[in-house]
Specification:
- It is a single chain.
- This protein has helices spanning 4-54, 95-98, 198-206, and strands at 56-61, 76-81, 102-103, 118-119, 128-135, 150-155, 170-180, 187-194, 210-214.
- It is of the alpha+beta class.
Length: 218
């Protein structure tokens, strides 16, 4: 027969055992959380290392460079970016190919260097002028225009009832820089022309009466 004293003694023995089991469960739970956090940190470190290791060096502009200035090593800095088809940058290992060229547009500090903004010869050369021409689709070839390309600027003279169309003047020019429009097929083309042709090109460009054609070898 079980007495009251026996029940009390059993209870006194059972309670500590339950506490021990609970403490072990808590410790195991904390250990599991710690292991999970370590695994997450390790995966994050691996991902960060992979992100950094995929970056590639590109040349950027370290200080403002005015139009026509010759590029020097002091004008350039190297930045690391993830390669992307949309980045029209110059790889960082081409510094020697860039130094000595001339800026065809103003280069702003902190921007990526674009190869299309550089030309091999100083401009405008003596006896030349640089004129900006805004062109629509159909007024220029669909082929990309490159700096240094030789082109012809043809005037589209319109005839009137009283006066027949005059012979359209053709002016030789060299492409200096091209700024493409925002998906509308337009472009602003800076061209170098003879000093005597500069005012004529500027007037015809303002009237929208110029067509640009590529010459052979461009």
């Amino acid at each position: 027969m079980t007495t009251t004293d026996d029940v009390a003694s059993l209870t006194a023995v059972t309670i500590p055992q339950r506490r021990v089991v609970r403490e072990r469960s808590v410790r195991r739970g904390r250990l599991g959380v710690a292991v999970a956090l370590m695994a997450v940190c390790a995966l994050g470190a691996v991902a960060l290392f992979g992100y950094v290791s995929r970056t590639q060096p590109y040349l950027a502009v370290g200080r403002d460079v005015p139009v026509g200035a010759q590029i020097t090593a002091a004008d350039l800095v190297t930045v690391h970016l993830n390669p992307d088809p949309g980045i029209a940058g110059v790889p960082g290992d081409r510094t020697d190919q860039v130094i000595g060229k001339y800026a065809s547009v103003a280069l702003l500090s902190g921007t990526l260097l674009n190869a299309n903004a550089l030309v091999d010869k100083p401009f405008p050369a003596p006896g030349e002028q640089v004129v900006g021409v805004s062109l629509k689709a159909g007024q220029m070839p669909s082929a990309p225009l490159r700096p240094g390309a030789s082109v012809l600027l043809v005037s589209t003279e319109e005839s009137t009832q009283d006066k027949p169309a005059a012979a359209a003047p053709t002016i030789r020019a060299t492409v200096v820089h091209v700024i493409a429009g925002a998906r509308d097929g337009t472009a602003t083309v800076s061209v170098a022309v003879r000093e005597s042709d500069g005012p004529v090109v500027a007037r015809l460009a303002a009237q929208g009466r110029l067509v640009l054609t590529l010459t052979s070898g461009s």
